[in-house]
Structures are given as C-alpha cells and as structure tokens.
Amino acid sequence: MASDILHIKDSYYFDVPKTIWTRHYESPAQIAGSFPWFVRLDDDYQDWEADRFIHTLSEITGEPGALESVKSNWEKAKHNHANHGKPLDRYLNDGVAKLEATARTWASKNAPDARDPLDAYLAKNPTDEFAWVAKMIRDPQKKAAWEKASVDANSQEALQEYLSLDRAKWDQHKLDGYSKALSGKVFIPQVFGGQLRNAYEAETGFCVSRYMILEVAVAVIVLFAFRWLAAKVKDGGSPKGKMWNLLEGLVQFVRNQVVVPAMGDHDADRFLPLFLTLFFFILGCNLMGMLPFLGAPTAAFATTSALAAIVFLTSFGFGVKELGPVGFFTNQAPHIDMPFGIGKVFSFLILMIELLSFGIKHLILSVRLLANMVAGHLVLLAIMGIAFGAHAVSMHMGTWSVVAMISILGTTVLSFLELFVCFLQAYVFTFLAALFVGSAIHHHH
C-alpha cells in the first residue's frame, strides 16, 4: 500500500489512532460498500479486470494476436512506482497519450513537414508497445467501442460481477491485512459527488481533501478572530486581555515591521488587508502541521502556488493600474542612451529578462514556502526512522531505552525549531510579497 512518508501528503482522510477507529471486514463486499476503489486496487481484482478487458478488446480489434503481450507488459510496468495500482485500461490510455506526445516532439525535429506526426513516428518505430492502440482508435467505430469498454471496466456493474465470483472469497489473512490498513483512517465524505481513485488521488468530479478542510478551518478562524478584534478596537479603547493584546500586537508587527519597510508608509495601508490576510492564513496553515494527525496545507504545492498566484496577479494588476499598460512594461527596463539603436536593443533584452524574472520570482515564492514546510516534517520522520531502525538492531542489546530517549529529545527540540519556522515563513512570504507588489507599482529610477 502507500508509503509511510505519504502522511505529509494531502489525502482524502484524517489519521487518528487505530485503537479509536478500528475496522474489521469479513468480505470484500463489505469493503466495497464503503470503499469500492480499495477493492479495485487489489491485485486479484486487477488481474480479473485485465482478463475481462482484454477479452473485450479482442472482439473490438478482431486481431487477438495483437493482444498477446499486453497483459505481461502491463504487469512488468506495475513494478514502476508511476504505474503502481494502475488498471490495464488506464495504463493503455496513458500509454497512447504519452506516445502521441512523443510523436509530436519527434516529428518537430525529424519530420516537420509530416501531415500526421504519429504516422511519421510509427513508420520509424513500428514496434512501439502502444502502436496497435493508437492505430485502432483511428477508426471512429473502434474508438467508440474502446471508450465504452474503458467506462465499463470501471463501472459498478463490473465490481459487482467480480464480487459474485468464487475468486472474490478472500481468505481471512488478506481481509485482516486490509482491515489493519483502513483502521485509523477517517475518510472524508465526498458530498459533491466526486469519486476517488485511491486515498490520495481523485478519479472524477470535485473531491474534498484533508488540506481543503484545514484551509477552510483556518480561514474561518482568521475571519472570526479579526471580526472579534475589529469589534473591540472600533471604539478606540486600550487593549485588554491576552488575546486582544496578542492579535493587535501581531497586526502592528505586520504593518510596521513587514509592509511599511517593503512598500513605504504611503502605500502600506492600502494593501495592508491583503498582507494581513496572507500572513495569518499562512501562519494558521503552518501551525496546523504542528497538531497531531492533521498536517500543514502549506506543505502542498497547490496551496503555495495559489498564494503566489494571488501576489502575482496583485503585482501585475496594480502595476498596470498605477503605471498604465505601456508604463508597466517600460518600467521594467531602463532607458539606455547608446547610438545606432543599440540602446533600444539592450533595453528590449533587459525587458525580456525582467519579465521572465517577474514570473520566476513569484514561482520561487511558492517553492520557498513549500520546501521549508516539507523539510521540517522530513527531518522529524528521519529521526523517528533512525529510532525504529535502532530499535530493530538493539532489541537484544538492552539499549532501546537510551535510543528512544535520544529520539524523543531530538524530535522535541526540532518541534520547537519548526514552531519558530512556522512564524518565520509566514513573515518571509508576506515581506517578499509586499516587496514584489511595491516594486511593481513604483517607478524605477
């Protein structure tokens, strides 16, 4: 099943102790009732499904000989991590898509005048594993039959057909293994109709993940916390109580130590709501990673890239608004006074470099936050891995208690360091965001 390291990856379930969320299954039909995708990932089911799909394909192609090596190639490919758990129909569909992309790349270099890149490529590479599929789906009728067979392979009817067979009477040892794998995992109800491919990937529709719920929770907490603060400060009274002092102190810190130094007093207050939102949202998401069984949404590239995209659009939008469409672009490159038009050439080259830099620095903004949040989790996992490895080695040496104590102390110290990193990365992201927006809306001298 999944690697242990996937607990820092976004998923469609929450981890809890197995003792408080224990599952016990007595048949695959029981598992399929709640997790049909889990049964579809089973090796025996996939073997049966592959035979069924190949039989359907032999009727479509009319050339059974073309399918002799399909199953063996698929079984070999499943040893590759990228194809692990991938059913035969999806493996073939992905293979054709990859073949077509390869053909386009090859034709652009070797046969730029070819009317059909795929035909040109296959003329040189007729033995490609997926060539027969690519040729088959050129026929509209066979393509329609192929698509129908692919949909049928993943249908509820196919699953029920398998469950009705004698081979679906799994032994208790296998069922106990699956019960153990699903214990401690509280799966999120997919109320929007989405279907899961596995515990970490969506198959179809809109699926709600763990990080989505945590992000909404952080947003709601930030909203209510600052609505409460706004109600307190609107009358101009002095701060009273720990929470009021904490929140107002953080707001003053973001304004005076982050936004004003990056943008100046004149523009700071205009953009302060944006940067306060960014700071507290990122801080909240970072801190979620310090809570047991949750995880930091900022450890997902989708989250950090969305935050960076907001900064990018703000920089570009307000840059164009303040300086005008032409002024924004000319502001990116200095005027170079050189004869014979050489200065204009250099200015254009600098403009291209600056525009590329404009995009890259926002991309790096997202990668920086992602890398720093993931790194702490990986170090903690490494220390715990060393502890369990040492346990295995020292079981008969009486040193386990010493190793355990060192590991606990090490993870505790690093947890405090990571708590500091949560605040630091919220600060760094907000400061750089303010710097980028300030640079985009001001004339360069």
Can you tag this structure with a few keywords?
4 strands, 445 residues, two-stranded antiparallel ribbon, mainly alpha, 3 domains
Report on the architecture of this protein.
The chain is mainly alpha-helical. The protein has a two-stranded antiparallel ribbon. Strands 3-4 form a two-stranded antiparallel ribbon. Helix 11 (210-233) crosses helix 13 and helix 14 (301-323) packs parallel to helix 17. Helices cover 68% and strands 2% of the residues. The model is unreliable at 1-7 (pLDDT under 50).
Shape: globular
Number of domains as seen in the coordinates: 3
Q: How many strands in all?
A: 4
Biggest β-sheet, characterized?
Answer: 2 strands, antiparallel
**Count of DSSP H/I helices:** 17
Order of strands in the sheet with the most strands?
A: 1-2
Kindly report the average pLDDT value: 81
- Helix % is 55-70%
H-E string: EHHHHHHHHHHEEEHHHHHHH
| Spatial extent as radius of gyration | 29 Å
- Summing up helix and strand content along with how strands pair, one would put the structural category as mainly alpha
